[in-house]
Design goal:
53 strands; mainly beta
């Protein structure tokens, strides 16, 4: 078996007689086959696993990694052919694989001497077809959602799961897909009356972010950042330049590289499932890890001051969907800022999240984008946060108390037809365009979407800023508030809750005043004070640091204004209130510190004591939630030394249960997702049907347990009881 992390697979021959995989990191062809091209895993459209050859493997082509220095530059598409370009020593080389007389061949020569040199930028167009888009203009006010339907019915049956987009200077959009295509979308005027789609590029790997700078097009994939060139100006990319492939990657099911932004110095940033938040120098020569500890960071955003936002989706060590804020830095900090996923690292306390989002609002976060100017209403400088899970968007506000960042989100009106990955503002009309896809859990109907959120010019009433004090929250609004209504309304409401930071999958919403008890705390509002025509103060004497503060405020005759805040730190009391009297207040510990303290206790495993002369058995986890061994055999009452190894990228355990109880114990295991305390029991259900178990074993670790097999013969199921795994991750111990 050959694994090529950044391989480029190519069909060879006029009729695709052969196929090969080129390795840019060695300049070798590491696989050759015939009879087909590629096979994709059926799990989540193939996104969770590597591609495999679809055909008969042939002997690997001769060749080895050059001993002299080399730099991979990318590849050209010349009709049906692909020509690789690299520098070998001081010489620019071209490498053209092909088929002659049914056999693999390649022509490798200096660029100036290569027979295909003249054809590199003069090849025929491969996808000249244009598709007139169906469009719909929304009717909402002050923001309307317009829909630009993709050409799902296209001649190549190319899936359109959109991973990102960007704009040329004239307002033409380029949209990339998870399957590796890039489409050009033209005619994006006010009425959307003549919008056209055309395929611009193909052959990228899981493209999940784009940047255009001075009409240079950059796309980030799982393997590299690619710059797309159209040298002959025929509307299609002919050179796929490798700008940087120095990032790490893996075959892990969630090790995607998501989102791409660029700062004023030309440096790129992306969120890597393998490494964390990374920064790539403008020349592509240097890759720096700036922070880690993000779970499934689907994208990122960049503020004008250089601060980076990274979203995380709910899961183990991530109690709720959240957005993290990484402050700008000239060089990576030491130790690296860690934001919690994977648990505390080397005794380092995780950084506080910027803002949490309740599961009912956003179960799986997308990226963020700064509102650049007033063409999208009175919100310039703020951010928009996108929800992949819910297919919606939020206004994201930023606060700071003593250097501690904390954020707030407020829902925006308008839904999208797919999970929202990326947002970009068009330089032509200044409006927000959204691209997205399905493929993971998203409560949306379409495989992909490309939509516009258009400001209509009507009055906007939204929170525009906030600041947290010991005695309440100051909130500013975009439009005048109704001061008498604000100060006399009985419809204001405030509540708070925490999440539990633990290896459990997510967290229930927990009472701040009764740790560990599910529920919210109602917060008494001592008063809501109108400070000026746009500003009010919500007086909350009992406010403490909490993971989630929910405010519902009646500020005018329109719908109530809703904010969800994360309170990491309280500023000194706000004193400019009528009749204000200072009072003593003890500030509670931060919820994260309480959770970290509670992690110190765990139930010991009763099966660790060695048994002399025990028979050695082993079991190893495989990819896609499997055990590589589905059947074990042993004699009744036999002493066993079981080694459980987990080379997978997610944690697993091994649990032996009574015959006929697999589904029953598995059902109990699934319910543990709502019980973060289950981690102290190694995610093993409290059931008399459980006979033996290992601890939860982290990726790349193993554990040994000792036990005697049951004295009764039979077929004893075993399973992984980590929530959601048991349905496919199970087997049998046959006791003879």
């Amino acid at each position: 078996q050959v694994l090529v992390p950044k391989g480029v697979c190519v069909r060879l021959g006029e009729h695709g007689e052969l196929a090969t995989c080129f390795n840019p990191e060695t300049l070798t062809y590491d696989a050759l086959w015939r009879g087909g091209f590629l096979k994709f895993s059926p799990v989540r459209h193939g996104f969770m696993d590597s591609v495999r050859p679809a055909g008969e493997l042939l002997p690997r082509p001769e060749g080895k990694q050059p001993e002299q220095p080399f730099t991979y530059h990318g590849f050209y598409r010349v009709g049906p052919r692909v020509v690789f370009a690299y520098q070998l020593g001081d010489v620019e080389m071209l490498d053209a694989p092909w088929v002659e007389d049914g056999k693999f061949t390649r022509v490798v020569a200096p660029r100036e001497q290569h027979p295909l040199k003249a054809a590199l930028t003069n090849g025929p167009a491969q996808w000249p077809q244009e598709f007139i888009a169906k469009t719909e203009l929304g009717s909402g006010k002050p923001y309307a959602v317009d829909t630009i339907y993709p050409p799902f019915d296209n001649p190549w049956k190319a899936p359109l799961f959109f991973g990102g987009h960007a704009f040329l200077a004239d307002g033409t959009a380029l949209v990339c897909t998870m399957q590796g295509d890039v489409w050009r979308v033209s005619g994006l005027d006010d009425k959307l009356a003549n919008v056209r789609w055309r395929r611009f590029a193909s052959g990228l790997h899981q493209a999940l972010g784009m940047v255009v700078h001075e009409d240079a097009v950059y796309v980030v994939g799982r393997d590299q950042i690619t710059r797309l060139h159209d040298h002959n100006h025929d509307g299609e990319a002919d050179f796929y330049e490798c700008c940087c492939n120095k990032m790490l990657t893996s075959v892990g099911g969630h090790d995607y590289t998501c989102g791409l932004v660029r700062d004023e110095r030309g440096r790129f940033y992306t969120s890597s499932g393998k490494q964390g938040l990374i920064r790539i120098s403008a020349d592509g020569e240097q890759v720096e890890v700036l922070a880690n500890g993000f779970r499934n960071g689907d994208g990122l955003g960049i503020y004008p001051d250089g601060a980076i936002t990274v979203p995380c989706s709910e899961g183990e060590w991530t109690p709720a969907t959240m957005i993290c804020l990484v402050e700008p830095s000239a060089s990576p900090a030491s130790p690296l800022p860690h934001y919690g996923h994977g648990g505390p690292q080397n005794g380092q306390r995780p950084r506080n999240p910027f803002v949490y989002l309740p599961r009912g609002l956003d179960n799986s976060a997308g990226g963020q984008v700064v509102i650049p100017d007033d063409r999208w209403g009175p919100l310039a400088g703020r951010m928009v946060h996108l929800s992949f899970g819910q297919g919606c968007h939020f206004l994201l506000l930023r606060d700071d108390v003593g250097g501690e960042a904390q954020g707030a989100i407020t829902p925006l009106v308008g839904d999208f037809r797919s999970g929202a990955h990326r947002g970009k503002f068009s330089p032509r009309d200044g409006q927000l365009y959204i691209s997205g896809m399905s493929g993971w859990g998203s409560y949306t109907p379409d495989d992909g979407c490309f939509q516009r959120v258009r400001y209509t010019g009507d009055a906007v009433q939204l929170p525009s800023a906030f600041h947290i004090h010991e005695n309440g929250v100051l909130v500013k609004f975009t439009s005048p508030i109704d001061r008498p209504r604000v100060e006399t309304s009985t419809q204001h409401f405030a509540q708070a809750w925490n999440y539990r930071y633990s290896p459990g999958y997510g967290s229930p919403e927990l009472s701040p005043s009764h740790p560990g008890v599910a529920g919210h705390d109602y917060l008494e509002i001592a008063g809501v004070h109108a400070l000026d025509d746009h500003t009010l103060f919500v007086e909350l004497p009992d406010l403490q640091p909490v993971n989630q503060l929910h405010l519902m405020l009646e500020v005018d005759a329109g719908r109530p204004q809703e904010l969800f805040l994360t309170v990491n730190k309280l500023d000194k009391p706000y004193t400019q209130l009528p009749g204000y009297r200072p009072f003593a207040k003890l500030i509670a510990a931060h919820p994260l510190d309480v959770d970290l303290a509670s992690l110190r206790a765990a139930e010991p495993n009763p099966w660790r004591e060695p048994i002399p002369k025990a028979t050695k058995l082993s079991i190893v986890t495989g990819p896609n939630l499997t055990y590589t061994t589905r059947t074990l055999k042993a004699r009744a009452g036999e002493p066993i030394r079981l080694t459980f190894s987990n080379p997978d990228v997610v944690p697993h355990n091994w649990v032996l249960v009574k015959p006929g109880t697999l589904a029953q114990v598995g059902g109990l295991a699934n319910k543990l997702i709502a019980d973060p305390a289950a981690v102290t029991r190694q995610y093993v259900p409290a059931s008399d049907d459980v006979l033996v178990y290992t601890d939860i074993v982290a990726p790349e670790h193993e554990l040994v347990i000792y036990f005697h097999t049951p004295r009764e013969k039979g077929r004893y199921p075993f399973l992984c009881t980590f929530p959601g795994h048991w349905m496919v991750m199970n087997g049998e111990l046959i006791v003879e």
